[in-house]
Design a protein that fits this description.
Radius of gyration: 15 Å
CATH class: Alpha Beta
Strand order of the largest sheet: 6-3-2-1-7-10-11-12
Structural class: alpha/beta
Number of strands: 12
Distance between the termini: 31 Å
Shape: globular
Largest sheet: 8 strands, mixed
Number of domains: 1
Number of helices: 4
Helix content: 10-25%
């Protein structure tokens, strides 16, 4: 899956990212952003990840606040900080993340979270990079809506998931939105 994603040329990745970001911004969950906080991430360009930067810029322009995750320690939950993309620094694992002194927010204070992944399915199951950071961070309820953002080619019929894996509520691609059925 990672090879397929990375195999898209730069123009194709940019076009698909723009389309997925437009679809994301049309979600009812992001209709009124004034004073609300959305957590994003910086795409790993070398791995061909879908780039949420256009959506994050639009969220800020619409009155929303943007937070980014920071890996504080290998086995701990993510820490979220308000920051602008230009303020991000190189952190653990080569990720662009906020500096530790940036204003910190509790994960429970977020109104929505964009979640990257290698693969997703319609049930909200997600295959990440194996660190379990999003799962540890959002294992406890209540939690904000988790929105998987990926290329359509990353949606598979059945994504492997274990008992500690936290599903996303929606998956947004350049061509569709998949909503997970609520648990009964």
């Amino acid at each position: 899956m990672g090879q397929e994603r990375a195999g898209l040329d730069a123009a194709e990745r940019r076009a698909r990212s723009q389309a997925a970001c437009a679809r994301l911004l049309d979600l009812p969950e992001l209709a009124d952003l004034t004073g609300r906080t959305v957590a994003g991430y910086v795409a790993l360009g070398a791995r061909g990840e879908l780039d949420p930067a256009p959506a994050l810029a639009a969220i800020a322009a619409r009155g929303g606040r943007v937070a980014y995750p920071r890996v504080a320690a290998p086995a701990s939950p993510l820490v979220f900080h308000l920051a602008e993309a230009a303020e991000l620094v190189s952190g653990r694992f080569g990720l662009s993340e906020p500096a530790p002194h940036a204003p910190e927010l509790a994960a429970s204070a977020l109104d929505a979270v964009l979640v990257p992944g290698v693969a997703f399915d319609a049930g909200g199951r997600r295959l990440g990079l194996g660190g379990g950071f999003y799962d540890r961070t959002f294992a406890q309820a209540p939690r904000p809506p988790l929105i998987g953002l990926c290329y359509d080619l990353q949606v598979v019929p059945d994504c492997p998931a274990g008992p500690g894996d936290v599903p996303v509520d929606l998956v947004v691609t350049e061509s569709r939105v998949l909503r997970r059925e609520p648990s009964r």
